[in-house]
Structure formats: structure tokens, C-alpha cells
Amino acid sequence: MTHDQNGPVSGERRALSRRSVLTTIGAVPVITATSAVLGATEASAATATVNPSAQRQTIKGFGGMTHAAWAGDLTATQRDTAFQTGEGKLGFSILRIPVGESQADFGRDLATAKRAVELGVTVFASPWNPPASMIETFNRSGQTNAKRLRYDQYAAYATHLNSFSTYMKNNGVNLYAISVQNEPDYAHDWTWWTSTEMVKFLRENAGSINTRVMAPESFQYVKSMSDPILNDATALANTDIIGAHLYGTSYSNFPYPLFKQKGAGKELWMTEVYYPNSTDSADTWPQALDVGEHMHRAMVEAEFQAYVWWYIRRSYGPMREDGQLSKRGAIMAQFARFVRPGYVRIDATANPATNVYVSAYRSGDTVVIVAINKNTSAVSQQFSVAGAGSAGVSSWVTDGSRNVAPQAATTMSNGSLTVTLPARSMTTYVTSLSGSSPSATPTVTPTVTPSQSPSQSPSQSPSQSPTGGTGAARVAYTMNSWSNGFTASISITNTGSSTINGWTLAFTLPSGQTITSGWNATYSPSSGQVSARNVDYNGTLAPGATVDIGFQASHTGNTSKPTSFTLNGVPCTVV
Q1: Is the pLDDT of residue 113 over 60?
Q2: Would you kindly state where each structural domain of the chain is located, as residue ranges?
Q3: Per-residue pLDDT reduced to its tens digit, 463-476
Q4: Topology of domain 473-574, per CATH?
Q5: What positions carry a catalytic annotation?
Q6: What is the mean pLDDT of residues 509-521?
Q7: What is the CATH topology of the domain spanning 43-58+342-440?
Q8: Distances in Å between the alpha carbon of 93 and those of 113, 193, 309, 323, 373?
Q9: What distance in Å separates the CA atoms of residue 364 and residue 354, rounded to the nearest whole number?
Q10: Options 3.90.550.10, 1.10.10.60, 3.10.180.10, 3.20.20.80; which CATH number does 61-338 get?
Q11: Strand, coil or helix: what is 218?
């Protein structure tokens, strides 16, 4: 993307032609989006059936973009608002950053990326232009200064992408993926690629790139850009993620049958959008509910695994310029805070009544139901969760006067839950299949490039829940498990009076558990008696300071937690 009309920021969006395109092809105005409504009295919807056994796509997360050169960097406080999951936070688990055109630009977004990684966030990067020395101009349909990558520079360009990935890794950020090109099919202000050129690069050069490869990031999810990749076995083998943008894309074009046919083992991400426009304030209500419907359809109809906004902080974005959540941001948080990476979308009645939209997600015994009511009156909605018993239900609501506001607890009885969806609202419900109390805010953290040693030690005996100990550090260990795996988030707090310079957290994984990847620490070995050692950017722990680390692991049925922890050989208090 380029310029917008929200301030004189150098290098930002300025292409009015794009705004005209969006207006023409269907950026839906709020009047149209809310024209079909129910009457003034509460109505009843058909039962929404949720089937936890019918699993669909695995969710990678929800997030947004920072581009310090165009819109300024986030402040330290804004980074925490964006990527933490508590009250008043967005809960974003994905960060997109630009690839610098030269090595002098590589560090522009590093500070935000490092903090994101510290909080367990997945970071990926997209380039707008190769280095100037690799570009040539040509005449493209009358655009005489159109840019493209020189054909003799494809290998050099792959090296450039590797250089950026290596720079970020050396500075504490292991990129999850790197894209070949941002919007190669709408590149009036950056570098054009044809689908033929994209396939050629993927076939011949992408195999040398040292992280996951994403392509093609089409402006409008134009299938003629991605079909050739899916239809070319070699190009597809060198591509890990099919990325797409949804500017003006009609809902009828959200499904992608060819990807379902040929994309086995690949990921499908929506990597950029603002919706429904960039001209209105993000606090305009009920227009912000349009974002909720858009996200719902992206998850249910397109079956995307990720949903990524354009600028995180902007007048039309999820975070206002003052650093507070906007209404659009609150709507995004209804997904992002509770549907965490590793959750799996499960079948649910998607549209049980006019202007009512339902989707559901599962992680182990936890089930999250997200319900949107765009009607002007309340709706009585029953949910029937197959195979569930009776359990407590926590919920949060956003409407005209509330932002992700926690509601009084209720109960699901024998798999049945009946609620009132307030007029023009979005509500997230969290419950448990097993009858245990649901987590107030699920904290599953995304998979990051593994850093632990593959060696293993003999398995230890199963263990019960953590018990307290004494010492100058406090540890909180949170698990979110599913059928054969789990993620663990570990918070280490220095409760002593002296700064800790360099730390190793030791604990014993229960039998059958094996670490497959981790973040913010180096793990060795991958099972048994594990040591998690600090990395270069988080080795200093001042008194009262906390560092968050974590890992993803497999299990063979045992989901017990470690019983005790030591930090630098000293027993920790476990909470």
C-alpha cells in the first residue's frame, strides 16, 4: 500500500486512483451494510450448532502492520497495547513489517519487532521494492516509469531477502516468513510482477531463501496471480504461504477451491486490508461492526488462517493516534484476544438469523464462540455444542457504549447455551467441553522458528500441578493443549533486590512431552530435564522485571505441568 488522506506523512498513501477503485468495486458504506435489520423487539434466531469434532483450518493469528518510515513507529506503551492480551489490549499475535530497500533501512522497524517477539508474536516481512540497482523501468500500459526487477537480478534479489532475514535474526527477530513482493498486481508506486515472473522466481530462486516464502500478496485476491503458483509443482514446493489482500474483494470471491485442491501442507493468509474504508474514523459506529462481519467471512468462507490489518495505529485503524483502542480495534480484539494461534476453527452454524454471524474455535477442551448481531434489536440465540456437558461460560461484548467489556458469568447446561445478543454488538464466549472453568483470556502463543537443541534426555515421571517454592524469582506457567500438542507460556519475574545478568530456567517436562519450537529462550534438550537459557536481548532482569518466554510441544496424552522450576539453580516460587 502507499499513501492515504490522513495526514502529511511522507511516503504514505496518496494514490486517489486506488480510492476510486475501492469505491467502484465494493467498499461497502455503512448505510448499505446495515439496511436489513430486525424490528424494535427482541427476535429469536435458529439454534447455532457447534461441532467441536469437525475441525477446519488452524489459526495462525490476527495482527497488523507497522511501517516506521511512512507512519512513525509505535511507542513502547503502544507496542504493549497492540500485542498483550489483557483488558484494554488488542491481543495481536502477528506483526507485519516492510523489507528495507537497502541495508541502511533494515533496522527501522526493529524495536517494535523485537518487543513483539518478546511477547510471543509471529513477525513476517513484505518488500515494496528491491534495491534500486536491481530495478529497470519499462512502459506498462502507458505508465512509462513502471518498475520491475531485472531478470538477471533474480538470484541477487533472493540474496537481498536473505540479508534482511539474517539481519533480523541476528538482532533477536526470527522472521516467520518473507514475501516476494507486496501487491505485485497494483504496483503503480512500487515494483510490478506478472504471474509468469513470480512463478519463474519461485521456481528458480525461492528455494535458496532461508525462511518461509510467501506469495503473491495480490491487491484484490486476484486468483490469476496465485493459480499459476498452485498449478506449478516446483513453484508450489518453494512456496510456504499463499498470501492475499482483500481490497474491494467481494464475498463471493472469498472461497478458493483450487487452494483446497492443491494447497495441502501450505498456509493461506490474509496479509493486508483496511475495511470498509480509510476515510472514516475507526470509532464510527455501527460501521465498525462491518469489520467484524468481514473477519467472520474471512475465517469461515475464505478459510484464511491469518487476518492482518494495514497500519496498527491510524485514525481508521485498530489503534487511534492517542494509543487507545478504536471501535474497529475493539471488534478485532473480540477475535484476537481469545482466538489464539494454534486454535482450530470448528464447524458452527454461520448465519442462524438475518444479520447474525457465528464462528467457533477450539483448543483442547476450550471452545470460543464469536457472535455478531448487526440488527437494531436484540436477538435471542441458542448455541448447541455437540458432545459438551455443563460448564461455566465467560463472555465479552463490544457495542455502541462498550469495548470488549467482560460480562457476568453464565452456564452452559448439557451442551446448550441460550443468550441475548445485544443490538448491534459483537460477543465472544469462552467455555469448556470438560466442564472445567474456562480461561478468562486464552494466552496461546504462536510458533516461532525453533532454537532448541534436538537432543533428548530420558523421560521423567508424570507430575501434578505446580507447587510453591522459595527464592528470588516467581514463575507463572500457562498451558493451552489440544489433541496431540500444546503451547506453554512462561513468565519469569525477578522478585529479588539485585539485577540478574544472564539466566537459565530449569524444569522437567512430564513423560511424553517434547518441545518442537520455542521463543525468547534457547531450549535444550527437547524433553526430560530442560534448560531454557536467555537470548541476547533479554538476559538482564532488573528487580521487579518480568520476561515472557514459551514453547510449543507435542504430547502423547499427558498434559501435566512441571512441578518445580529453578532459576540459576535457585528454586522459584510458582504461581
Answers
A1: yes
A2: 43-58+342-440, 61-338, 473-574
A3: 333 333 335 798 98
A4: Immunoglobulin-like (2.60.40)
A5: 183, 272
A6: 88
A7: Immunoglobulin-like (2.60.40)
A8: 12, 30, 12, 18, 25
A9: 31
A10: 3.20.20.80
A11: strand
